[in-house]
Structure prediction request, 287 residues.
Amino acid sequence: MATGDDYRIDRRAVRRNNRRHASEAASFDTVAREVAARMEERLDYIRLSPRRILDLGCGTGADRERLQARYRDADVVGVDSCAAMLASGRRHGLLGRLLGRRTPASAADALALPFRPASFGMVWSNLMLQCLDDPAPAFAEMHRVLEVDGMVMFSSLGPDSLKELRRAFPERSVHRFMDMHDVGDALVRAGFGDPVMDMQMLTVTYADADTLFADLRGGGHANARADRPRGLLGTGAWQSRLTGLEQGRHDGVLPFTLELVFGHAWKLPPRTDEHGRSVVQFHPSRP
Prediction:
């Protein structure tokens, strides 16, 4: 498991960034929409008919509407740590109303979900885990609120994400992201079974660095490392970093890499009861 100051996240800064840009977040979620589409493709190969679905880290609610359209008979519930994001989604979300189904959402901490055990048949989490120091506590909460035989499906960012930005800027100015195998290990330690992990690379291009930074800020993804520099770079240092970025320009655009990590796993029947005794299942023999 990757640990250390490189991976520590200032969660107050994350919430502050999200709150500051909540009203415009829906205009800067192109990557999240693409990742959601790739996640949904994986659902085509999974037999699951959940009655209740939790969209964890739902933001403005685009994924809730996607899930409601796919699972029309399910109740889709959203949770996000930023109340302003939820409010923005309520102002702009029309599809749920057109479908005639409510998709309620509440502001809550992913590490302390306000739901009873076994409340959901599916937990969906799109690009939320990289905002945490360690995914294990969040996985533990997902496991708690899932029914037996329920599924978690999630996406996150891997260590090659924004490597171009990391090369040009001081190390502490850019987030570090956990390796896919470390995320999978945390999933298993939380009690999930039959995990499936995979990774895809996505290249996003920008006309200039200003557009990139506006995209990061608008999506609430400004630097929230706990050890980030608090002061501003001087003009000379800033221009030097921009020159470093420009060295990566190709065919007239600046390419930036995103390593997309996808995973899903199941909550299996318990092997012990609440008293720690082993659970042994007997099945009648076939005649």
